[in-house]
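During the practical work, I worked with a single protein chain and the tokens that describe its fold, as given directly below.
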Amino acid sequence: MKTLYQVLGVSGQASSPEIEQAYKTGLAALANGATTLNPEERDIREKVVREAYAILSSPNRRSAYDEKLRNKTRVAELIVESSPFPWMKIVAALLLVVGCLYVYQVQADKAEAELAALEAKKAEAEAERAEQLALAEQARLEQQKLQEQRAIQSKQDFEIAQFRREERLRTERAQKADTQATEKAAATR
């Protein structure tokens, strides 16, 4: 909060003429600054300047006001001097910081463990998928091999059947030739 000296813009050792001059300057500034301030603000500031001047222009009132300021300063100095160093607050703050760091570390460790577990599950799933793909490929290769064997067997069966047909035709021709030769021999006899 401002002191009355600060309201008028003078030092605590200002003389009566300096205070009067500051008062007149303050009022003039408020009158000139009327366009930037609303009327209520201007009235309040004017009352404050007038009250400061009324107190500081009277020697008795000024000395009472100065005494009051000195007493406030002494009380503030006593409060500052009498306050012990806040060890407990510092210790509590340090404990709070350490606790927060501990919680953060625990959560970070937990998150890291969860991440490692997820990575392990992912690796396991990929291994299982690779195994399934390998089994599917193996089944496809076995099916292809079986089809090739069937094709070979089919070709062999076809070749055997064709050989037997040709053999039967040769046998039939040989028998026919023998029959004809026997018939010619019997006829010539």
Remarks:
- The radius of gyration is 59 Å.
- Residues 87-188 form the longest helix (102 residues).
- Helices lie at 4-8, 16-32, 39-57, 59-82, 87-188.
- The chain has a mean pLDDT of 86.
